[in-house]
Amino acid sequence: MPPAQAARNCGYHPTALAKKVRTPAPPRPVQAPQRRDTKQRRVPAVGVQGRSPWLLYGFAAMGPIALIIVLAVVLLGHSSSSKNASGKAPKIDYAALPGLQKGPAPWPPEYASLPDRLRPLGLNALSAEALAFHIHQHLDVFVNGKKVTVPQFIGIDDGSFITELHTHDATGIMHVESAQTKPYTLGQFVSVWGVRLSKQCIGGYCAGPGKPLRFYLNGKRYLSDPNNLILKNHQEIAIVYGKAPKKIPSTYNFAAHGV
């Protein structure tokens, strides 16, 4: 099996970077992740950044058994984990976070104040993806029956850092990729996105007469604070403001996207 295919089978997602006009300085110096562009990027020979291919060649000279052992150890180091974290949602003052968008959709990823939101959110500016804890969810947002795009590159700042919660594309798939197996929440993700979220409001849309704001988890109403909804593997989350769509999604085809 080609190394790039092996890396994908183990749940590895190459770090992608957004393009924007200005990049704020991260909270601490980090090494910039590799940029995603329209050209196909070469995946490192064994699925690990910075690993020299001569190491494999050296072990190959020792025989096929040694090579298999090395490949297994390296690839297992990048294997994804679908085990859900246990524990309570972190206590965060979401209303005090800077830079949250409170206007109408669409909402692009907000980067200018993202470094100032990370510490209050309990998140980090990482130099590369950490895959010890690696799960995925899907988020749908509807405003008056119309779907709002969950954009690509949420939590991936151009040339600077990547956070534990991010998106690689505009499918609505949320990536939780962390060095620690601990609870992460919908509120943390939407705050990384840079959008206001509460039981009453999403962005500039607040509940009122004839304009309800409802939350759904796997097709069923979620009545608690959405900010404290703990993210678990393969959840389908829907936020619906005003007129509801014809059908509330209850599942998502994660397998079609290799996650």
Brief write-up:
The chain is of the alpha+beta class and 259 residues long. The chain is 17% helix and 17% strand.
Order of helices and strands: HHHHEEEEEEHEEEEE
Percent of residues in helical segments?
10-25%
User: How does the helix and strand content classify structurally?
Assistant: alpha+beta
Contiguous runs where pLDDT drops below 50 for at least 5 residues: 1-12, 14-60, 65-79
Tell me the radius of gyration: 20 Å
Mean pLDDT across residues: 80
Q: Report the sheet with the most strands, covering strand number, pairing sense and barrel closure.
A: 7 strands, mixed
Q: Indicate the proportion of strand residues.
A: 15-25%
- How many extended strands? 11
What is the CA-CA span between the terminal residues? 19 Å
Task: Characterize the structure shown.
The chain is α+β, with helices and mostly antiparallel strands and 259 residues long. The chain contains 5 helices and 11 strands; from the N terminus they run ααααββββββαβββββ. The strands form 3 sheets. Strands 1, 2, 5, 6, 9, 10 and 11 form a 7-stranded mixed beta sheet that branches. A two-stranded antiparallel ribbon has the order 3-4. A hairpin with a 3-residue loop joins strand 3 (156-157) and strand 4 (161-162). Helix 2 (54-62) runs antiparallel to helix 3 (64-76). The longest helix is centred in the first third of the chain and has 13 residues, at 64-76. Residues 1-12, 14-60 and 65-79 have low confidence and may be disordered.
